[in-house]
Amino acid sequence: MHIKEEAIANLRQFDIGNKFDLPALPKASVLIPLFVRNGELYTLMTLRSKELRTSAGEVCFPGGKRDPSDRDDVYTALREAQEEIGLPPDAVHVSGLLVTPVVGFIGESFCPSPNPAEVSAVFTVPLDFFTSEKDHYAAHGAAGIMGPLHSFYFADPDSGTQYHIWGLTAMLAIMVAVLSLRKTPEFSVGFDSEDPSSFFQQVLQRRISKL
To answer: What pTM did the predictor assign?
Structure first.
């Protein structure tokens, strides 16, 4: 089976649709864009503008708060991705809805057009990077955090820039890597890779409002 089809099949085992109802939370959604390059899965990430009021200068996935006119979480994630990096909604093959992150495949040839008011950089990371111990760090017992606080330092070979990927963004990247690749990370992730849904429901209940 081709790596893309295999990843889609793996992710769909954990597609929860509207299984979890989180009415007390501010509605928000992120898109985790995946693509295949040279037979390997990659994800696309952004660096938030330093001019933003929240999480300025942090690495994240495209996404944001739901507008009243948005039909669902998928629509929110696709709309935000188009606004932030110029990704057309019809260029995304949605592969799964994992609580709040929407996972979708995009073409390898997609060329981002970042909105400078929201995004200062766009870069790609091999998904396997989020299962390796090499550039991974974890803090335990952080206030208000369930499980370890994961952190990665990624040196982008294209720009030479080093990006710090941490917190909820790092956890989401680890989750998608584990589920897509069906690979056990070289470090303790803090959740059951065979049934991550209940853990992530609790994590998102605490932290989604920070997106």
So the answer is: 0.84
